Amino acid sequence: MFFSRLGSLALSSASAVLAANYSNPLEPKNGGDPSIAWHDGYWYFTATNYRDISVRRATTLEGLKTALPKTVWAHSAEYPSRQCNIWAPELHIMDGQWHIYFSAGGCDDDSIQQSQVLRGGQSPWDNFDFYGTVNAPAWSIDGTPLTINGQNYFVYSCFRDDTGENLQSLCIGQNSDILTIGEEHLLASPTEAWERNGQMPVNEGPFALYSKNRTFLSYSGSFCWDPSYSLGLLEYIGGDPLQQSSWVKTGPHFSQANGMYSTGHNSFFTSPDGTETWMAYHSSPNPAGSCGDRYANAKKIDFEADGFPILGEPIAEGVVLPGPAGEPQA
Ligand SMILES: *[C@@H]1O[C@H](CO)[C@@H](O)[C@H](O)[C@H]1NC(C)=O
Ligand SMILES: *[C@@H]1O[C@H](CO)[C@@H](O)[C@H](O)[C@H]1NC(C)=O
C-alpha cells in the first residue's frame, strides 16, 4: 500500500502533555487551501500562494506565523502546461516518502488544470522534485489520496454530472500507481441548496478522514467567493467505492460564523502525540466573502461516540487556544 492513512485517529482527548498556545490566522494572506503535517519535531505548512509551492516549518502552530517559507517547486517556461493557476498543495507521506499534490495548468486557459505531484524524501524539509501529472482527465483539481480496504483511490474536482448541467463535481478513480488511475467515476455533484450559493454550484477540495473504521471525505460546497462556502461530508457505506451509491452526503457541517466567512477547503492532521485530530481550513474576515487573500486557520475537531466527525465552527480571529497535544511548549 503506497498511501499511508492518517493513522487510526485516536478519539481520546485526554492528554497530560501541555501544548503551546496559538491563535488564528496562522497565515493572513496566502492561506488558501492549507495543508499541515507533523513530522519529527516540526509542523510543516503549505497553502496556495498562486506563484509557486512553498513549505514552512516550526515546532509550534504559533511559530508557523513567523517561519520563513522555502520554495520547493517553481514553474519553468519549459513546461507551459503547468505554469499558472498553481493551487491547493497537499502534503502526504506515501511509502515513507513525502509528496506534494497540487493543481496547475496553462496560463491562457485553465481548462487544462491537472493534478501534479512532487516527490521529496523522508522529511518534508528535503528537496522535492517534479514527479509527474496524474492522468485524470483535464480539467481536474484538488486531487487527494483515499484508501479503502487496502485499495488506493484518487479523488478530485471535475466538471461532470448526471444532470446535464456541467457541474463542478467530485470524481474518483482507482489507482494502479500514484500517477495513474483507471476510469473516472462521478462521486458527488452540488445538488443541495447549500452547495449552490454564489456564482456557480461547486463541489471541490476533498480530503479523507478515517475514524473508528469509518471512512469520510470532507469537501467544500458552493462558489469559493461566496460567504457561505461550507464543508460537507461524504461517508463510505460499503460496496464499490467508485459508485455514488456507496457514499452518503450530509451537510453543511462547517460554515461562516464568528466573523469568518467563505470558510472551507480543509485538510486534516494529527496532533504530535497521536491523540487528537485537527483541521486546517481557510476563511476570510470580509462579510462579502473572498477567495483571494485568505486566512489559513487550524482547529481541533471532535467526534461523536460512533466516530462521526464534529467539525464545529470557525474560530474567531485572535482567540488564544491550546495547540495540539504533544506540541513542545515554545
Ligand atoms: C495559554 O493561555 C492561557 C490563557 O491565557 C494561559 O493560562 C496558559 O498559561 C497559556 N499556556 C502556555 C503554555 O503558554
Ligand atoms: C471496517 O469496515 C470495512 C468496510 O466498511 C468492513 O469490511 C470491515 O469488516 C470493518 N472492520 C471492523 C473491524 O469493523
UniProtKB/TrEMBL annotation:
Record InterPro entries: Glyco_hydro_43 (IPR006710), Glyco_hydro_beta-prop_sf (IPR023296)
A Pfam short name: Glyco_hydro_43
Signal peptide feature range: 1-19
Gene3D superfamilies named among the record's database cross-references: Glycosyl hydrolase domain, family 43
Keywords per UniProt: Glycosidase, Hydrolase, Signal
Keyword Hydrolase: yes
Family statement: Belongs to the glycosyl hydrolase 43 family.
The protein's name in its UniProt record: Arabinanase/levansucrase/invertase
